[in-house]
Amino acid sequence: MAGCSSSSGDGSGGADDGGDSSGGEDTADREMRDFGGWFDRTGNYDGVHDLTGQDTVTVAVGADGNGGGYAFAPAAAEVSPGTTVVWEWTGNGGTHNVVNREDGLFESELTVSEGHTFEYTFEESGEYKYVCVPHETLGMVGVVVVE
Q1: Is 21 exposed, middle or buried (0-12, 13-18, 19+ CB in 10 A)?
Q2: Which of 18, 25, 85, 99 has the fewest CB atoms within 10 Å around its CB?
Q3: Binding residues
Q4: DSSP 100-118
Q5: Which residues are annotated as a binding site for Cu cation?
Q6: What is the pLDDT of residue 17?
Q7: Residue 48 pairs with which residues in a beta bridge?
Q8: Which residues does the annotation say bind Cu cation (predicted)?
Q9: pLDDT at 36 over 80
Q10: What φ, ψ does residue 20 adopt, rounded to 5°?
């Protein structure tokens, strides 16, 4: 099974820089997909960010959106099989977690700690929806598309 881990990270600063810069100026290339209404309540969904071809991708937890620090950024990311997604807590918006409810493949602990990280390596193609359980009703949801 794919690996996952979490830490109170102090060594992921370089990975964060790589993840943020990889989002770059690709807005023209972002595909707007509905995902069955998954993002209907999500204010910061701006299309699927194509982050394929990278070994590691970073998603901010507690990014600005949905009325405060209640968003994942990017909300939707496309990655290649074998990519490790690292969710990194910003420290904003209170206590968060990252939970794949549909398949139960991954679930982080609840924490508010800035710099905390949780990671999961996606091996199989598919769409993997996830939520922050305490803020799901505010629209704090995301998806990783593996193709």
Answers
A1: exposed
A2: 25
A3: 96, 132, 135, 140
A4: -TTT---BPPPB--TT-EE
A5: 96, 132, 135, 140
A6: 36
A7: 31
A8: 96, 132, 135, 140
A9: yes
A10: -70, -45
What lies within 8 Å, CB to CB, of 90 at 6+ separation is 60, 61, 62, 63, 69, 114
- Distance between CA atoms of 65 and 89, rounded to whole angstroms? 14
Nearest partner of 99 among 57, 142, 59, judged by Cα: 142
Residue 21 has pLDDT above 70, yes or no: no
Q: Round the average pLDDT of the chain to a whole number and report it.
A: 86
Q: Which overall architecture, per CATH, does domain 4-20+42-146 show?
A: Sandwich (2.60)
User: How is residue 25 written in tokens?
Assistant: 């100026």
DSSP symbol at 99:
B
- The tokens for 98 are 């990252």
Total-model pTM: 0.81
SS3 of 95, please? coil
pLDDT of res. 12: 35
pLDDT score recorded for residue 29: 61
Instruction: Pull the structure tokens for residue 59.
Output: 């998603």
Q: What is the CA radius of gyration of the chain?
A: 14
**DSSP conformational letter for 127:** E
Q: Place 31 in a pLDDT band, splitting at 50, 70 and 90.
A: confident
